[in-house]
Amino acid sequence: MLLISCPNCGSRDETEFHYGGQAHVAYPENPNELNDREWAEFLFYRDNTKGAFAERWLHSTGCRQWFNMLRDTVTYEIQAVYPMGAVRPDKAAPAPESGTASTAPDSTTTGTAAPSIAATSTATSTAHASATAPEGATK
């Protein structure tokens, strides 16, 4: 069973949520101009991705709010939870190569600002070792 982190309520059991399909499916600009084939494609054709997949979820027994989740369809690992209307985290601008932490609102699964370790390297040079640690960090 999955433990899903609602951006409004915190971590809850997956039985409190309902799956809402693929995220980021754009509504047609001129729906009256679509033929039957185009409507069928909009309504029923969805990606069947193996790996990272953006999904919509509803916290139906909690705050009743919709949100997006980036989840691996093979391992079921939840990679990110982010608000509706936000850019998919793995499609956002890449983090700086200097090792600077990301404080973007969608950088964590809870939607709060937090450092990202994606762009940090494992090798530490003497120039980086003498840099001032971020607030709240311990040595």
Question: Can you give a write-up of this model?
Answer:
With 139 residues, the protein is mainly beta. It contains 2 helices and 6 strands; from the N terminus they run βββαβββα. It has helices at 36-44, 126-129; strands spanning 3-6, 10-13, 17-22, 52-59, 66-72, 78-83. The strands form 2 sheets. The chain has a 4-stranded antiparallel beta sheet, with no helix packed on it. The protein is globular. Residues 98-130 have low confidence and may be disordered.
- Categorize the overall geometry: globular
The neighbouring-strand order within the major sheet is 3-4-5-6
N- to C-terminal distance: 36 Å
**Main structural class:** mainly beta
Largest sheet: 4 strands, antiparallel
Short description:
The protein has helices at 36-44, 126-129, and strands at 3-6, 10-13, 17-22, 52-59, 66-72, 78-83. By secondary structure, the chain is mostly beta strands. It is globular.
